[in-house]
């Protein structure tokens, strides 16, 4: 079985989630055209403390002022 391994990357939350979304869309396209998906192993970390909101969460669920005051990145994932 072929497995795609992406080396460890450190970056800000919005960049990491943008890469994650691009990988997801690529896998979706692969599945729709070929009927299967090559598994992907990817590890990463954030350069700053971060709050990641899930698709169904609202920005109002968090304390935006606290995050701003403490330099905590806030972003939302697509999935």
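-> sequence recovered:
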């Amino acid at each position: 079985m072929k497995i795609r391994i992406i080396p460890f990357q450190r970056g800000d939350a919005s960049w990491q989630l943008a890469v994650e979304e691009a990988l997801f869309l690529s896998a979706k396209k692969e599945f729709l055209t070929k009927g299967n998906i090559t598994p992907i192993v990817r590890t990463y970390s954030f350069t700053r403390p971060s709050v990641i909101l899930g698709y169904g969460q609202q920005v109002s669920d968090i304390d935006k002022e606290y995050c701003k005051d403490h330099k905590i990145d806030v972003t939302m994932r697509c999935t």
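DSSP finds two helices and four strands in the chain.
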